[in-house]
Fold each of these.
Amino acid sequence: MDSFTLIIFGITGNLAQIKLIPALYDMEEKDLLPSDMTIVGIARKEMSDEELKHYVHTVLHLENIHHKHEIKEEVFKRLCKKFTYLSGQIQDQNLYEKLSNILKHGNRIFYLATYPELYHQIFENLQKNNLNKQNKGWIRLMIEKPIGCNLPSAKKLNKLLLKYFTEDQIFRLDHYLGKETLQNILTFRFANDIFEPLINKDYIDHIQIAAAEDFGIGKRGGYYDQVGALKDVGQNHQLQMLAFAAMDAPSEFSNEAVTKERIKILKNLIPMPDKVVYGQYEGYRKEENVSLQSNTDTFYALKTYINNERFKDVPIYIRAGKKLKQTVTEISIVFKNHVNRLFKSADSGDEPNVLIYRIQPNEGIVLKILTKVPGYDAKLQPEYMQYCYRPNPYTHKIPDPYERLLIDTIRGDQTFFNDAEEVEAQWAFIDPLIAVRGKPAIYEPGSWGPKEADELIEKDGRIWLEPSMDFCRI
Ligand SMILES: NC(=O)c1ccc[n+]([C@@H]2O[C@H](COP(=O)([O-])OP(=O)(O)OC[C@H]3O[C@@H](n4cnc5c(N)ncnc54)[C@H](OP(=O)(O)O)[C@@H]3O)[C@@H](O)[C@H]2O)c1
């Protein structure tokens, strides 16, 4: 692997603490980082090298990070040797001069773990100091969601990015694309021949996508109250889940071909402003940094269709929210229950088959089928045929998405990143739904959201599926 410098703008922030530093530790432990690479952390706070070490140590031992395994002292020391810290204002020219002086490698990744309002100044200052020029190696930029807050602002940001970088240098992150459980949908669909012929309007009754959390907004009120559930997870993670589940087979497994197929789905989604329900959990307005009059959505449910031949008239129901009954993210492909099915009149005999891509928890791909209850009668019961992710004792279970996406960036592989057209297609679908966002319906914490969400699907003679915890309990 080529050596390189990773420059993180915002090393003291929340994202760096809960995602980047733990991912870098894991990569160091697995020997995935070149020994002579450098990590330059930037923020305003003054910190000596010793204080930086102490900071990294504290971060790796934080309670709230998903980094539950032991921190080994020798790995920590190796990682610390790679770290350098630069304090300064992003707006300040001097910072970039200091940065130029310490940059050893021509290959560089700039990671923007700071506010979007600062991007322009970062780019301008990098340019003034020739730091974005690819004359002695490759230069890549990693940039987090949100890319804009609607279609016009996303277009503006994409235009700005393209003023300083080329599209093949820009790695727009949606960490869901780095999830093993999402990427495996492509393998399941396109490496096996048996299911793909069934993934169409002739066999599928409808599709459901759920992203539920049983907790509230915690300390993120200041951010969340400006954004709401649909923009926070609907515009990005959930649309990507749908794209993976519904896209046509790419002509090859390359960035261009995979991204092209995802974009086709996103561009063909039909926004239905009269089929969206917004909810807010009771007590949300009393959360820290939330307005007492807030109408921000902490829940939404919507219906849509994909405007293509394959999924013509197949409804897609998407819901997500906070303080719901359960924490679960999954895609359910609900198959048609053909009229002439034998045993239809037996107990449970009319239950549909459901293909479930469980993103988390109880990660797996399972097929709900009907089986005979052992005994003398023709009684049926639903069971699950399952593929589950078994923890690998030699690695830390499933690789963290940030680790995966950092590796892809080092390799220059953009397959699991969004390009400008893709992000804009997502906003083009979401904007008409946001335009009708009024007062949300209040729902009880611990429920499945407001009753209006149930009515949305029940009007069509269907119900929301209760996510099962009966499979992949490892
Ligand atoms: N947190 C997450 O889980 C998450 C998830 C997805 C996307 N994101 C996105 O990632 C970005 C960062 O989010 P965050 O939650 O990490 O924010 P944050 O906790 O507020 O951190 C912001 C970072 O930027 C630095 N900073 C701010 N102003 C600066 C300036 N003028 N000069 C130099 N450094 C400056 C801060 O350091 P000092 O204050 O010490 O200078 C801090 O390190 C945002 O765009 C967010 O939307 C975050």
Amino acid sequence: MVVGAGVAGLLAACALHRDHAEVVVVERDPLRPGASAFRPGAPQGRHIHGLLIRGARVVETLLPGIREQMRCSGAPVFDMGLATVLCNRGERVGPYATGMELQLFSRRFFEDHLRRRVLELPGVRLMDGVTVNGLLPGASGRVAGVRTRHGPVPAELVVDAAGRSSRTGRWLREFGCQVPADELVDAGAAYATVWLDEPCELPAAGRIVYEFGQFADRGAGGGIALLEDDRPLLMLFGRAGNRPPTDPEGFTAFARDLDNPHLHRYAAAAKHLPVHRYAHMPNRRRPYERARDWPAGLLVAGDAMCVFNPVYGQGMTVAALQAETIARHAPALARDPAAAFAVQRELAARTRLPWLIATSLDSRWTGTPGARQRLIGAGLARMLDRCGDSRHLYTSFFRAQHLVAPLGLLHPGALWTLARPTGGDRHEHT
Ligand SMILES: Cc1cc2nc3c(=O)[nH]c(=O)nc-3n(C[C@H](O)[C@H](O)[C@H](O)COP(=O)(O)OP(=O)(O)OC[C@H]3O[C@@H](n4cnc5c(N)ncnc54)[C@H](O)[C@@H]3O)c2cc1C
């Protein structure tokens, strides 16, 4: 059984289906096919949801052909270095051909495609409109299913993918399981998003304009993205309590202060449209891998175990990496639910690098940065600031950020560019 039909839950169901006769996905929101409203169980769906390139590759291995299906439904695939108009205070960085293929879509579009594909898999069933409100204890302290308002639902294995509102930490106390305190790194980040209602022409036939220039000093930035069917979305973000306002004047002024003419122009044109804000976005890890007396038959994945500041776009990719791990261990989990704790430790391991990247880059704004995090954060911020100086540094930086080849940042070519004075080999542009 999987609790939650978000990205993590759907991918976990996919990972388990081959080795379990039946996989039931229990979701509290009613999920009518074709329903168009944003659903209350995933309020973050109103905001941009970029799937990192590593995540897209893993999803494609779990559900072959899904990228092409989404392309045919209106989400083009493009070279991220050419179609991303990456700006440093309004001035374009690059472009460079990177060979890294990106696809942009709304979270709703992605989730709809995932859900359709996963529910077509043999043995996978959705129980929607049902809220899980506890874990069912079984023999020898194991988890034997879940409690719902409609009665208990037994299961050999329960995967909690209920997102950031997961209550497993509390429910585990009933099982005599002790979990160390959460790790929290809060940069005080906030998003504000407007879905534009007019077609949007981005410079250089770009599909995304992304401004990071204020990143270094104020922690603020923003972007415009053309999602499926060229649907434009404008988002602004800030850190350290520097929240983008939701009133039209404040929103436009915030965009103007980013010194990016595209963001300012479209923010000013969107004065009649509602601004949606998401304001509490700390990095938070629940260290289940260090729990004592973990019960057999339980896994926790996705945001239910680790949430990231979404500015780095890592959450769905981590969910995909964890699904990859669950798929690898699905036969062992089917044979012996007591294998769950060893798998839980591996799920935690998949969060380690993204956690290091997010908390290091955020360390400047958290008030309690560790020395290691501060050093890595300063190095990454410098690379971002200099990534326009050479194709090598640009590609290395984004291959790392997209979790494709993180160690490439230590390549001598990348380090050499960093060591030189600003300017670099801009003639390398494609
Ligand atoms: C503002 C914002 C922007 C983001 N942008 C990005 C981005 O650009 N890229 C990216 O990769 N990630 C992004 N994320 C993170 C991303 O949303 C998640 O990491 C990712 O969707 C995985 O979430 P999940 O499936 O674990 O949880 P969720 O998406 O929250 O899904 C949990 C599901 O469980 C259901 N549920 C909850 N409780 C119960 C219960 N008791 N019983 C039954 N069902 C229940 C909910 O209704 C929901 O459907 C963003 C997050 C935020 C807040």
